[in-house]
Write a structure and sequence with these properties.
The chain contains eight helices and two strands; from the N terminus they run ααβαααααβα. It is mainly α and about 180 residues long. The protein has a domain of about 110 residues: Malonyl-Coenzyme A Acyl Carrier Protein, domain 2, CATH 3.40.366.10. The longest helix is centred in the last third of the chain and has 22 residues. The chain starts with a helix and ends in a 14-residue tail after the last helix. The N terminus is likely disordered. It holds the Pfam family Acyl_transf_1.
């Protein structure tokens, strides 16, 4: 976001206290070649014009926002166990973490679930399980997702959902 704002500011001449104007740019040397014209000519003769990609109407797009640390509660995930692949997610978490995350999520105690080392994986797996439910009930919402985001552990969930990371690559903070 900051980079985008900085680029926009630079384009408007706001960066580093400079005010750009047409007179601020030096004139090209007398025999200078117009590179833009050369590129335009080269692409016009070598390539066919491309058809613009059709944009989806906003009503056919979805954005998924994933929760972060602090949204954990004993019993989370209980209603998701009947959907395909949810038990597989918890089994994978057990093999990666070395403890039964499903048991901790369903039965607590809350004090143990509130520890960073436990709540981050619990929120992460429950969020992916919720996506499984969403995919089962409304597959078009998942298929038409154009963005995914989150805060804290939700960022990792968004990256795994988008395919940018593998489930087993996520590293959690180990503060207790």
């Amino acid at each position: 976001m900051i980079l985008r704002v900085a680029r926009a500011a630079w384009a408007r001449g706001w960066g580093a206290g400079c005010r750009r104007g047409a007179a601020d740019f030096p004139l090209p040397p007398p025999r200078a070649v117009d590179v833009a014209e050369l590129l335009r000519d080269a692409t016009a003769t070598e390539e066919e014009p491309r058809e613009a990609a059709a944009r989806r109407p906003p009503g056919q797009c979805s954005v998924l926002l994933f929760p972060g640390q602090g949204s954990q509660v004993v019993g989370m995930g209980r209603g998701l166990l009947r959907y395909p692949r949810v038990r597989e997610l918890y089994a994978a978490a057990r093999s990666v973490l070395g403890y039964d995350l499903l048991e901790l999520s369903l039965h607590g105690p809350q004090e143990a679930l509130d520890r960073t080392a436990h709540c981050q994986p619990a929120v992460f797996v429950a969020s992916l399980a919720a996506v499984e439910k969403l995919h089962h009930l409304q597959p078009a919402v998942v298929e038409n997702c154009v963005a995914a985001a989150g805060f804290s552990v939700g960022e990792f969930t968004a990256l795994v959902f988008a395919g940018a990371m593998e489930f087993s690559e996520v590293k959690y903070e180990q503060r207790m």
